[in-house]
Amino acid sequence: MSENTAAATTSDQTAEGGAKPTVVLVHGAFAESASWDGVIALLQERGYPVVAAGNPLRSPASDAAAVRSLVDHVRGPVVLVGHSYGGSVISQAADGAENVRALVYVGAFLPEVGESALELTGRFPGSTLPGALDPVAFTGADGSTGTDLYIRADAYHHQFAADVPADTAARMAATQRPIAQAALEETATVAAWKTLPSWDVVTTADLNIPVAAQRFMAERAGAHVTEVDASHAVAASRPDVVAGVIEQAARHIAG
Questions:
Q1: Is the pLDDT of residue 15 over 60?
Q2: What is the pTM (predicted TM-score) of this model?
């Protein structure tokens, strides 16, 4: 599936007499929209309209604005889903969005106002991500400079996707989208999980975000938690679990 997935504006599919909500999926760092392919296939088989948003990975505020523009374009209720850093993005994008009815976090950050992804990761032991990173300096069109972060190709399988086949992990490494280091340092200004029902897939074999950090954030948010023995790439390795949790959220808001 391409990065620029077209937005679904409406759905003809119904379940138990009502239109199904649109599922908007937001990828995180070191991934791209195709990382949701297995989840998308399962949701579409069950009749859900799905949009895989392109996440710029520049900053939580600007990325949230980009996602919000897509969410505002969708007619009808939305289940907004974020993986990894995408959790920081959906926590801001959903703030004040009347059609977002539920949030689903997948091996993700649920930051409180004033917290950053970097700070939350470092608060708990277990992440081996720093040693796997490959920083690349960049200069923007406006002359601004910064650092993009990739995961080294030789470290990607172990670090990010240990429970997917090696050839799949190699393709994921080759197509990974880098994140601006500044995005991981920027603090949250809102936390939509305080006002919206949330679900959380906690990945217990995650080497990027420590499981202790995930459990802490999920408990603080009062999220409905599903724990799975999976790597950070849980959408690729266990799409059945991820799709199932998203469907739980969709059914909940359908009443």
A1: no
A2: 0.93
